[in-house]
Amino acid sequence: MIVFDLACPAGHRFEGWFASSEDFSRQQQRALVTCPQCGSADVAKAPMAPAVPRKGNQRAEVPAPAQPMASGVMPPEAAAMLGKLAQLQAEVLRDSRWVGKDFAQQSREMHYGEREADVIHGQATLEQARDLLEEGVPVLPLPFPVAPPDELN
Ligand SMILES: [Zn+2]
């Protein structure tokens, strides 16, 4: 199963679950996908698909393009939540292999069985991430920037 963030022309956003990217295209063409708020069948994929990383053999490929940042006075609970998220990301990435700019290629190879499944993270442009998602490769954006390991040494 794959989840897509969908949007209608009125700007309503909602999630839809599909067997595959092709399944979504098929249903979209037959106007079977409709907005739950206004009923419009003119829906399209919103840019990013959220996915919940799971422990075990579930892969968690993660593109890391330049990240948007926030600054300013933040309520303590928001800051605490961001801190928690950052900690979760660190835990998810602990067993993950940094592949840098090879991310898109290696994700694709794993998806098509040309490479042993592994948990990897690296860098991808938004365009690469979009292409991967359209091919049904389960990638997800990281909430926080990741410094390449060779830059830390
Ligand atoms: Zn709508």
Protein architecture, described:
It is built from 5 helices and 6 strands. The protein folds into 2 domains: 2-45, no CATH class; 62-152, no CATH class. The chain has a 3-stranded antiparallel beta sheet, with helices on one face. The longest helix is centred in the middle third of the chain and has 19 residues, at 76-94. The chain is of the alpha/beta class and 153 residues long. The protein has helices at residues 21-29, 76-94, 103-111, 126-134, 149-152; strands at residues 2-7, 13-18, 44-45, 62-63, 97-100, 120-122. The structure holds zinc ion. The site of zinc ion has 7 residues, from loops.
Please write out the topology.
Elements: E1 2-7, E2 13-18, H1 21-29, E3 44-45, E4 62-63, H2 76-94, E5 97-100, H3 103-111, E6 120-122, H4 126-134, H5 149-152
Parallel strand pairs: 4-6, 5-6
Antiparallel strand pairs: 1-2, 1-3
Bound molecules: zinc ion.
Strand order of the largest sheet: 2-1-3
How much is the average pLDDT?
A: 81
Tell me about the biggest sheet? 3 strands, antiparallel
Hetero groups in this structure are: zinc ion
**Oligomer, anyone?**
single chain
Describe this structure in a few short sentences.
The chain is of the alpha/beta class.
List keywords for this structure.
single chain; 153 residues; alpha/beta; 2 domains; three-stranded antiparallel sheet; three-stranded parallel sheet; 5 helices; 33% helix; binds zinc ion
